[in-house]
Write a structure and sequence with these properties.
With 462 residues, the protein is α+β, with helices and mostly antiparallel strands. It is built from 17 helices and 21 strands. Bound molecules: D-malate and zinc ion (ZN).
């Protein structure tokens, strides 16, 4: 109790929420409602110095600290254990954009900035911060970096890792590392910021970052294509890449079942085509001039693809409202799946060269071993990343199904975890699929930076 009082004092008035109070559930349950934890306190420090002071105190007393941003993670990485002894360290009060450096194409933002706020700050300067995903209205920069978030524009701009130039991190022992580098070139020893990006808060707390900005895609073109299945999507991606080159920003795949669920359950969306098809792709290209964005190329390309029967139907969005409708369908898929319930979810990645074969092979054994199963895969096919979600027939063994999916992914040279991370959800698979040498190296890093195991205990590695 004295410890909790000390942490409350560090964070000051308005800087904490009672762990046992009515408001705690928003922090102690993950957004998929798969993990239910308890927290002794939700601490909300207002500066990196306060974060460091909380960590120093917790390190001395052996109190587990669970860093949390928007609580939109998909793997339970920001949910405390059920014991109630850990505290949540919520970064939401640290929401200052420290600087937009237009000449340098960078933004410096604190960890608690909502992703959409960083996008808007860039936009006000006539620039683009390209990290984008369905949860951008509530997820925060610290969480996005800590999970190395991907989203819908990785194809052109890379993951959070590639978008980060500098990082400020509070360590378990209460030191603050100032690495707010704004340079694109600075070969000066180990690139330690990469240890913390994607570490899911197990090595330290990201408190601020310097992020890369790009010319705005003012002439974005968005189109919606109907096709026969995932194999066609991979081949089609090659056609688009050849035709649009670097202007291709997004290439999102959706099985027909995903779109049907959205149209059934999400109000305010319209089917862009008159018929239903086995699968769809949402493509966006963008640049500062209409010609560079593929404005003239797209109609001819789609006509050729229709001619060659590589696509079954297509529509180009005429204006922002139509483009917004297409994006709403794509981005509402997780919500529609949650409303429907009963999906076994997998976040997998494969080399583009084996993705079509993986889909065909999986379809074959799913039909044979799990008759009645409905696949609802979608995702970032341009990155080789599929959210391979399946509704199993009642009584089917979901654990055995998932094991089979991961074995198939592994056999095709892929990963069991593409962009959602390990959290509490995939610790078993991490041990199964990483080599002993890799796990040993990860453990050594963890022991070096967090010898008392206070940083997000029970996540990624036990
Ligand atoms: C998405 O691509 O929509 C997100 O990764 C969320 C999800 O997979 O459910
Ligand atoms: Zn995704």
């Amino acid at each position: 109790m004295a410890d909790i009082q000390t942490i409350k004092r560090i964070c000051g008035d308005g800087g904490w929420v009672d762990g046992g109070g009515a408001g705690a559930a928003a922090f102690t349950v993950d957004q998929r409602e798969k993990f239910h934890g308890r927290a002794a306190l939700i601490a909300m420090p207002g500066s990196a110095a306060e974060v460091a002071a909380v960590l120093r105190h917790c390190n001395a007393r052996g109190i587990g600290v669970v860093p949390q941003g928007g609580n939109t993670g998909m793997a339970g990485g920001a949910t405390p254990s059920a014991g109630g002894g850990q505290i949540i360290l919520h970064l939401g009060r640290m929401n200052r954009i420290r600087e937009v450096d237009r000449a340098n194409f960078t933004v410096s933002a604190e960890a608690g900035c909502v992703l959409a706020a960083v996008q808007e700050a860039a936009q006000r300067a006539g620039l683009l911060f390209p990290l984008a995903m369905g949860s951008q209205g509530s997820c925060m920069i610290g969480g996005a970096l800590s999970t190395n978030a991907g989203g819908v524009r990785v194809l052109r701009y890379g993951n959070a890792r590639e978008l980060t130039l500098g990082l400020e991190v509070a360590l378990a022992d209460g030191r603050v590392l100032d690495g707010m580098n704004k340079l694109r070139k600075s070969n000066s020893g180990y690139d330690w910021k990469q240890w913390f990006i994607g570490a899911e808060g197990t090595l330290g707390v990201v408190t601020a970052a310097v992020l890369r900005l790009f010319p705005d895609e003012t002439h974005a073109r968005t189109c919606w294509l109907a096709l026969g299945g995932a194999g066609d999507a991979v081949r089609l991606f090659g056609d688009f890449r050849d035709a649009l080159g670097g202007a291709l920003s997004c290439f999102e795949f959706m099985e027909g079942e995903c779109v049907a669920q959205v149209l059934r359950t999400i109000p305010g969306v319209r089917n862009p085509l008159v018929k239903n098809y086995p699968a769809y792709v949402l493509v966006q290209s963008g640049a500062q001039s209409a010609a560079a964005a593929g404005g003239e190329i797209l109609p001819a390309l789609l006509a050729r693809l229709l001619d060659e029967k590589k696509i079954l139907d297509a529509t180009i969005a005429a204006g922002e409202a139509q483009a917004a409708n297409l994006w709403k369908i794509r981005e509402a898929i997780p919500e529609a799946e949650k409303k429907r319930g009963g999906y076994v979810k997998h976040d997998i990645s494969l080399p583009l060269s084996t993705l079509a074969d993986f889909m065909a092979e999986s379809r074959r054994w799913i039909a044979q071993d799990f008759p009645g199963a409905v696949t609802a895969a979608f995702g970032h096919v341009g990155d080789g990343n599929l959210h391979f979600n399946v509704r199993l027939p009642s009584g089917a063994d979901a654990g055995a199904f998932t094991e089979k999916v991961y074995a198939e992914v592994h056999a095709h040279g892929g990963s069991f975890s593409a962009e959602h991370g390990i959290g509490q959800l995939r610790k078993k698979e991490l041990l199964a699929f990483k080599s002993a040498g890799e796990i040993a190296l990860m453990r050594r890093l963890k022991e070096t930076l967090d010898p008392n195991n206070i940083m997000n205990p029970g996540k990624v590695l036990d």
